[in-house]
């Protein structure tokens, strides 16, 4: 998979050289290109922003540098088995990043990311790009960041780890939070008895029993309990189920 990232803070994407994503790049699973938006300015001050038309606080990112940058990305990556990338633009008003969306994006051969800053990017950039490639605005959640770079790091990690060969043991991707609608079970390792100062902390005995059926059952119960306690919205409510049954809704 090819990834192109356009940003005014290229160094913000340095973490993509580290850990599993960095290894995926070295293994040729990911091909990441980071572009400095200021490369595509045409004035000696390398201006990327201006005051908002219609007034208001802050600054807005100018359209021309973005149009030039996206044209460069399309031209540079044309040999990707896809003529254009799917452009992902992080924004507080986007569709939520979910595990399902991460799986969808992991099927694509080429993603491009536009990292906005200031109060956002001139709306005509989305129109211009949308006439040339698929564009999706993606939100990490209902809070406001200062720019798109942190969101891109999160999206690249969520998508990249789903690619074959990135995570050593693919089984570890299965019983994770949000993969099958339940939160993950608690995990433990040695020592089985931890002398934490004057407190002795033991692991649940079932985990030491060697009874794999009992361990699996305990872990599933833990997932149900945790989900009910922390994310009841993820559980099919009995009331909802009842109502649907009453309405005979298929
Ligand atoms: N889930 C998310 C994503 C973002 C995000 C992504 C990109 C940009 C570019 C600029 N800003 C700041 C800003 C502030 C006010 C209104 C609009 N944007 C961003 C915020 N915040 N929360």
Tell me what portion of residues adopts beta-strand conformation.
15-25%
Instruction: Write down the CATH topology of the largest domain.
Output: Alpha/beta knot
- Helical stretch tally: 7
Strand order of the largest sheet: 2-1-6-5-7
Number of domains: 2
CATH class value of the largest domain: Alpha Beta
Q: Distance N terminus to C terminus?
A: 38 Å
Helix share, percent: 25-40%
- Weakly predicted, low-confidence segments: 242-250
Shape: elongated
What profile does the largest beta sheet have? 5 strands, parallel
How would you sum up this structure in a few lines?
This protein is α/β, with parallel strands linked by helices and 250 residues long. It has helices spanning 19-26, 63-76, 99-106, 123-130, 149-160, 212-230, 238-247, and strands at 2-7, 31-36, 49-50, 60-61, 86-96, 110-114, 135-139, 193-196, 199-202.
């Amino acid at each position: 998979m090819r990834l192109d990232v356009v940003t005014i803070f290229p160094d913000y994407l340095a973490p993509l050289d580290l850990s599993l994503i960095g290894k995926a790049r070295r293994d040729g699973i990911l091909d990441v290109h980071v572009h400095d938006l200021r490369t595509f300015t045409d004035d000696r001050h390398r201006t990327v922003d201006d005051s908002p038309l219609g007034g208001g606080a802050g600054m807005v990112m100018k359209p021309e540098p973005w149009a030039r940058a996206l044209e460069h990305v399309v031209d540079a990556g044309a040999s990707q088995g896809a003529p254009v990338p799917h452009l992902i633009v992080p924004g507080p008003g986007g569709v939520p990043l979910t595990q399902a969306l991460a799986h969808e994006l992991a099927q694509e051969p080429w993603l491009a990311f536009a990292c906005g800053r200031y109060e956002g990017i001139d709306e005509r950039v989305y129109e211009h790009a949308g006439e040339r490639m698929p564009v999706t605005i993606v939100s990490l959640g209902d809070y406001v960041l200062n720019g798109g770079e942190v969101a891109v790091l999160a999206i690249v990690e969520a998508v990249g780890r789903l690619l074959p060969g990135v995570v050593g043991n693919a089984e570890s991707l299965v019983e994770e939070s949000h993969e099958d609608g339940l939160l993950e079970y608690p995990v433990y390792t040695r020592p089985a008895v931890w002398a934490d100062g004057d407190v002795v902390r033991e692991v649940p005995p079932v985990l030491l029993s060697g009874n794999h059926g009992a361990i699996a059952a305990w872990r599933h119960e833990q997932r149900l309990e945790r989900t009910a306690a922390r994310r009841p919205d993820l559980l099919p409510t009995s009331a909802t189920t009842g109502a649907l049954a009453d309405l005979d809704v298929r």
